[in-house]
Design a protein that fits this description.
TRAP_DctM, about 0% strand, 21 helices
């Protein structure tokens, strides 16, 4: 029963994905087929589909998506860019460093890599092009820096991970992602400075550097956003779900009444677009519940985990195998989808080795971040290349350098777990 059901489950899922079926369809159909064929009780399908999304932490997911889009449309990115430019000053590679820093900061508001990359690319790619940066390089750099959004809190991916791994709380994961997220972003500065000095990018800057205090006053409302979100979480003033609501209303207030860049029409469009994105994500999570029920009832996930454990008993080699597997998966699927598909298989391995679930979640998420700008299915890179007007193929050479830089940060966090665990432990999570 296990062998037959496992073949139907995994092979059916792979075939549906290969022919281009949406992920939600592939998960739901393959899971339902196994339940029907193996007689696991057809009524478990609607029950598990409902249970997949009937989790309180998931309430934060659509609201953080709304908050991120609200800040993006409010024009926060432009003001943060001016402030970062005033801090960095005029030097070789300055605009590249500004792009990285702004992406990291906006990641502390949106929690979404593509949204982060889109907001920064609209502002930075034309400015970088004027200073000699090739558009393929700029698109790649912003896509890579934007991927830190799923590490730096609030992160939609880490919220989903906490739902699937109850022993890892949202506050602990948010705190755990701070240092690795900063390391991942800062790692990109090295290739940026190297290429800027090598090719002389940024030497012919005609634009004046914004004055520090003027740009600070313009950016202060955006700068306060992560302080309010993370400060409220730390002080216990509100839960992660309530933090998402506060962030959404704060973005609405800033865009409508402070910057006056939002109109009621634009607010309506943001509500519609964020609802569509949230519906897609939640539908995938719902049908992944059916897939997970079929696999766990059959014992297929445990059998697969035992198969992996049978390859080696060496902890370092197992981590390397998982990293390679996740990097490949990250090139093809988004972070939420990868968690839903692979975590049921990986959690028994985590238990067997006694790994900390918070640290392991951060490791997986760093892999997913790298996947967001690694062709062929790099979601961030799709966004930035479209804005830059260049092909995906033209970015491959640059992307390899960015991948190599961020892999160094990943290896550091893998080798030294305290980089991810020190802050949660210090905060008492």
């Amino acid at each position: 029963m296990i062998a037959e059901g496992s073949i139907i489950l995994f092979l059916g899922f792979a075939l549906l994905m290969a022919i281009g079926a949406p992920l939600a369809v592939a998960l739901g159909v393959s899971g339902t087929a196994v339940i029907l064929i193996e007689g696991l009780g057809i009524m478990s399908v609607p029950t598990n589909a409902y249970n997949g999304v009937a989790k309180y932490p998931l309430l934060a997911l659509p609201v953080f998506i709304l908050a991120g889009m609200m800040f993006e449309r409010a024009g926060v990115a432009l003001r943060i860019v001016r402030f970062a430019s005033a801090i960095v000053g005029r030097r070789r590679g300055a605009q590249g460093i500004v792009a990285i820093l702004v992406c990291m900061f906006l990641g502390g508001i949106s929690g979404s890599g593509p949204a982060d990359a889109a907001a920064v690319a609209m502002v930075m790619i034309p400015a970088m092009f004027k200073q000699g940066y090739p558009k393929p390089f700029s698109a790649t750099l912003i896509a890579a820096a934007g991927s830190t959004a799923i590490l730096i809190p609030p992160s939609v991916a880490l919220i989903v991970y906490s739902v699937l791994v109850p022993s890892a709380s949202v506050p602990a994961l948010f705190a755990g992602g701070v240092i690795p997220g900063i390391l991942a972003g800062l790692s990109l500065i090295i290739p940026t400075l190297w290429f800027s000095h090598k090719h002389g990018w940024g030497l012919d800057a005609d634009e004046e550097t914004p004055r520090f205090w003027d740009s600070f006053k313009e950016a202060i409302w955006g700068l306060l956003a992560p302080v309010i979100i993370l400060g409220g979480l730390r002080t216990g003033l509100f839960t992660p779900t309530e933090a998402a609501v506060v962030a959404a209303f704060y973005g609405f207030f800033v865009g409508l009444f402070v910057y006056r860049t939002l109109t009621l029409r634009k607010v309506y469009e943001v509500l519609v677009e964020s609802a569509e994105i949230s519906a897609v994500v939640l539908l995938i999570i719902s049908l992944a519940g059916v897939f997970a029920h079929a696999g766990s009832t059959l014992g297929a996930f445990d059998a697969f985990a035992k198969l992996l454990l049978g390859f080696t008993s060496n902890e370092a080699l197992m981590l390397l195998m998982i990293t390679i597997m996740m990097l490949i998966a990250g090139m093809l699927l988004d972070a939420v989808s990868i968690f839903l598909v692979f975590l049921p298989i990986l959690l028994p391995i985590v238990t067997a080795y006694g790994w900390d679930p918070v640290w392991f979640g951060i490791i997986l998420t760093m892999n997913m971040a790298i996947g967001q700008f690694t062709p062929p299915m790099a979601v961030n890179l799709m966004v930035t290349t479209r804005i830059a007007g260049v092909t995906m193929e033209s970015t491959v050479g640059w992307a390899l350098w960015m991948v190599g830089a961020m892999l160094v940060a990943l290896l550091l966090v893998t080798a030294f777990p305290q980089l991810a665990l020190w802050l949660p432990q210090s905060l008492g999570y």
